[in-house]
Amino acid sequence: MAVLKLQGIEVKGISCCVPPKIEYNRDITYLTAEEKEKFITVTGIEERRIAEDDVCASDLSLQASELLFEKLNWDKDSVELLVFVSQSADYTLPVTAAILQDRMGLSKKCLAFDVPLGCSGYVYGISIITGMMKSFNIKRGILIAGDTGNKLISKTDKSTHPLFGDAASATAFENTDSNETILFDLGTDGSGFESIIIRDGGSRNKATEASLQYNEYKPGVLRNNCQLSLNGMDVFSFGISQAPKTVNNLIDSFQINKDEIDYFVFHQANMMINKKITKKLKIPIEKVPYSLKEFGNTSSATIPLTIVKELKHQIEVENKKLLLCGFGVGLSWGTVILTLQKDIQLIYSEYV
Amino acid sequence: MEITTFLQNFADILDDTDATLVTAETDFRDLEEWDSMTALSLIAMVDEEYDVKLTGEDIKTSKTIQNLFEKVNSKV
Question: Which residue ranges does the record assign to the Carrier domain (chain B) (predicted)?
């Protein structure tokens, strides 16, 4: 496992944007009342935000970024790096980051590219952006992480539909020469690539007419091959075993005392997974915030969304040391320990 | 590892099923309460009690609780 350490880059702000439209899991018609309550108890997901058909992850990102630039009072020309972490790009090509560079009004000198990771994407994104800023002495960078997962799933597939919400985040980084360190543990297990997959539409299996035909894999699981397939049991098994490992690996490698960490923010996929992880790591539950209930699984946006919704007031009072851990599609995982300063901008908005 | 303890642990993940219905020969899919959420509880229980990673495939290829017990036992 790759354990990395970096100094001198600071987070200046995190801004999240969600669509205003709410879908309630209790309103789902294909589950019985009993099934719905059981689902909510296990997953913790009651509501999800759904983007309109003409709203993409890039649109949510644009609003999140605009609000962040405004609050930070950043001259857009000073932003030299834009990374778009998402699995819901505007087009197959070109990269959405290029479109966003123009829409955000960033300089043509800005480096911009996409990283198509999901649940581990926020932590990976932080490692990429801070690593590049440090190596190339880039002054300011913006990390976008988010998805409109609802465009990727079948609304008649109970194994995915009640889980995913739409959201995007923008995180601002600055090269400050401060002594604050950022620590990472990152890893991959591609043997599990089929656990979360969209089978058709890429180069391996091009989209054909057959790709759009719906198949009933089991009762309540009706989808086509251009839509997301999720092996819930395997992902669950992976989450409860891998997440504690990556956290422990990072903590042990740098001899961190768990008590030094103010909050542990885990990817929000399923309440039972996170409760298991918390228990295995012997972390006090009050140090583990959740945004699952209101937003469900928003892919790479779950961690920043949980921070702005659940930790804003705590961070604004005093600096907080956070451990962030993402795990999922790939299979891929990442854990980071960093400090958020109390003067940081934390913004939550609904898309208009 | 003992089948009796495994049966007890299995019965504990169920809320509304009489423990007498949970035997080694029971076809767990026939239990009224069994569904995909129960499967997650089973994976969690096996992880916690036996430190074993039970996969979707392990569950899919099992019919009885005895089959599940054997899969877990082979990984302990």
Answer: 1-76
Is B25 a member of any domain? no
CA dist list (Å): A230 to A153, A266, A268: 10, 20, 16
Measured distance CA(A40)–CA(A33) in Å, rounded = 11
Report the candidate in A284, A75, A318, A64 with the shortest Cα–Cα distance to residue A166: A64
Domains held by chain B: number: 1
Q: Which residue range is the domain that position A146 belongs to?
A: 1-352
Predicted pLDDT at B68? 96
pLDDT for the residue numbered A103: 98
Of residues A139, A147, A155, the one with CA closest to residue A298? A147
The alpha carbon of residue A233 is apart from the nearest alpha carbon of chain B, in Å, by 5
In a domain, B16, yes or no: no
In this structure, what CATH number is given to the domain that contains residue A261? Answer: 3.40.47.10
Question: Would the pTM count as exceeding 0.80?
Answer: yes
Q: Please give the structure tokens belonging to residue A190.
A: 């591609």
Chain B residue with CA closest to A276: the answer is B44
CA triple B73-B66-A218, angle to 5 deg = 105
Alpha-carbon span A342 to A247, nearest angstrom? 24
pLDDT tens for A92-133 read 999 999 999 999 999 999 999 999 999 999 999 999 999 999
Rounded CA separation A10/A32 (Å): 48
Size of chain A in residues: 352
Q: What is the ipTM of this complex?
A: 0.82
Flag if B37 and A240 touch (Cβ within 8 Å): no
Strands (E), chain A: 2-7, 9-18, 22-24, 47-49, 79-85, 111-115, 140-148, 166-175, 181-188, 196-197, 215-218, 221-223, 229-230, 263-266, 320-328, 332-340, 345-350
Please indicate, yes or no, if residue B20 is contained in any of the structural domains.
Answer: no
Distance from the B23 Cα atom to the nearest Cα atom in chain A, whole angstroms: 23
- Looking at the DSSP bridge assignments, the partners of residue A11 are A173
A–B CB contacts, 8 A cutoff, strictly below: 44
Instruction: Compute how many other C-beta atoms are within 10 angstroms of the C-beta atom of residue B8.
Output: 13
